[in-house]
Amino acid sequence: MSNSTTSCRLRRGLMTQSVIGPGDRDLGIAYAKAGRRNRAEEMISKFDPVRELNSMRRCTHTYFRRYMLIETVLLAALIIGPFMPVLSVPAQSAAEFDIVLANGRVMDPESNLDAVRNIGIRAGKIAAISARPLRGRTVVDVKGLVVAPGFIDLHSHGQDDENYRYKARDGVTTALELEVGVSPVAAWYAQRDGKSLINFGATVGHIPAKMAVMKDTGAFLPRDNAINRLSTPDEVRQITDLIKQGLDEGALGIGFGINYVPTTTRAEVFDLFAVAAERGVANYVHVRHGGATEPGSGVGAVQEVLSDAAATGASLHIVHITSVCLRQTATCLSLIEGAAKRGVDVTTEAYPYTATQTRLESAIYNDGWQESLGITFKDLQWVATGERLTAETFARYRKEGGSVIGHSIPEEISRLAAANPRVMVASDGLIENRQGHPRGAGTFARVLGVYVREQKALSLMDAIRKMTLLPAQRLEKAVPSMRAKGRIKVGADADLAIFDPAIVIDRATFEQPAQYSEGIRHVLVGGIFVVRDEKIVEGVKPGKAVRRPLRDQKRLLEQLFFGQSQNVAQKRLLQKSTSGNEVSTETR
Ligand SMILES: [Zn+2]
């Protein structure tokens, strides 16, 4: 390849990734040259090598000269910028922004800022947070409203346009399928790229990999082979290969629903945790059992994955802790908090409802369910008709297959998890043809309206933190781009939820789940309104893939930072040899 072609390729991102600024890859290189490693990793993790190849055709010398200049100016600004704060102030206040959100009560859970501020948005990012007025091409007065980071839903099974609309109206700007997960991964991302209202992403799922290898006939969840028989050693190898392939394709971690594939051995789970540890990703787990009956309690199931995390060093996120541990939720939370205090990287989440929803034909309703869940037929509600079940309809519908709601979580348990500042808010939601569990539409507004405003079970800032910063932090070690989400600060993605704290409330019910939340006034995804004055903005699809860096991105990062880590290692050696002190061996 000739020199000019190579240069041309290098300029690709500048020309096509964005009409406003240079490409993520080149911006990342510029940040790396300026020594700003976090920003460099974040930008490079967004660059897409496939798009790079497609856009090579458009490379011309005119563009080349134009963007060379931009990169030089940008690099100079990055290097000089931090030393010249005085110069940057008048430049900023005179700037005109794409959008200004004026006079809102800005709440940022990272800095604990809670004050009236103006926010300037430029090129999809938060570009200014100011007590003084800002000039913008569009200025929206949000006086009296809370301006929070957009909500991040770690447990969102509904990954289509119908569901993204309910999510957006509930304040969610990023919806991730982390529990069941997907396989194959690349195709899943390709289906949504450029077509999504909000940001999306997924883990590679143990369940879908197992269903494919064992030829289970279920759809979303297994219904026969993956429930009824053990995987052979060869099948376990194939499942592991599919999971590794999904991680190569940028999956956010490994998803597990052990309860749905109960013949999975403890060794199989342990070995996959070791894969997660090796790849530096977290496991998102619906544990092996629910309820109080021994053997097979929720407490024991939590203990299984905590010990796997401790022994492998893998990170662990336990999903919907209330529906697993039921009346023993306090014990499960103590286990998680105790393990976290002793160095295990473990987190958890809950949805603010007193009922579960899953497939009636799944292993959760195998013999013994009444005893372990502490409920009976009349506590089950058939989603398609809304009717409560009897022994006879239970048997019939289980054979047919379909969604069922189980009224099994006591209200005080739901409140306990909602009030706990460590327990993230995540919906576990799925609406299909306007049917489903109300959590698919109302989870976030319900926490803000019922648990914050009405019951005063937690502060507004704590609630926002459980919906934004904590989920972003859960992911960001493996997914650098999440460092730009879940907070309101200059340079963060302009994913924002703007709501009226005096009226925000869920409207979705078990009888009518397909009801939009109220009081979420505006929602922006990457600086684009997707909800304006409580209405979906039609025809915009600003949602982007949340994905781990692909192999090409990783190689680039290694090239950029190899010299630097060598220097650090050398400095440490020198320090050690000269002082004789113990030096931390922590490296990236
Ligand atoms: Zn689950």
Chart the SSEs and their pairings.
Blueprint: H1 3-10, H2 12-16, H3 24-33, H4 37-46, H5 49-55, H6 61-80, H7 85-94, E1 96-108, E2 113-122, E3 125-130, E4 135-141, E5 146-149, E6 151-153, H8 161-169, E7 172-182, H9 185-192, E8 199-205, H10 206-214, H11 225-228, H12 233-248, E9 253-257, H13 266-279, E10 282-286, H14 298-312, E11 315-318, H15 321-325, H16 329-341, E12 346-350, E13 356-359, H17 369-373, E14 380-382, H18 391-400, E15 403-406, H19 411-419, E16 423-425, E17 431-432, E18 435-436, H20 439-454, H21 460-467, H22 469-476, E19 496-499, E20 520-525, E21 528-532, E22 535-536, H23 551-579
Parallel strand pairs: 1-4, 1-5, 6-7, 7-8, 8-9, 9-10, 10-11, 11-12, 12-16
Antiparallel strand pairs: 1-2, 2-3, 5-19, 13-15, 14-15, 17-18, 19-20, 20-21, 21-22
Helix pairs in contact: 3-4, 3-6, 4-23, 10-12, 12-13, 13-14, 14-16, 20-21
The structure holds zinc ion.
Zinc ion is lined by residues 179, 257, 286, 319-320, 428.
Helix proportion range? 40-55%
**Cα distance spanning the termini:** 34 Å
Structural class by helix and strand composition: alpha/beta
The largest β sheet comes out as: 9 strands, mixed
Give the DSSP E fraction (strand runs of 2 or more residues): 15-25%
Per DSSP E runs of 2 or more residues, the count of β-strands stands at 22
Instruction: Just name the CATH architecture of the largest domain.
Output: Alpha-Beta Barrel
**Uncertain ranges:** 1-22, 52-65, 81-93, 577-588
How many structural domains does the protein architecture include?
A: 3
CATH superfamily of the largest domain: Metal-dependent hydrolases
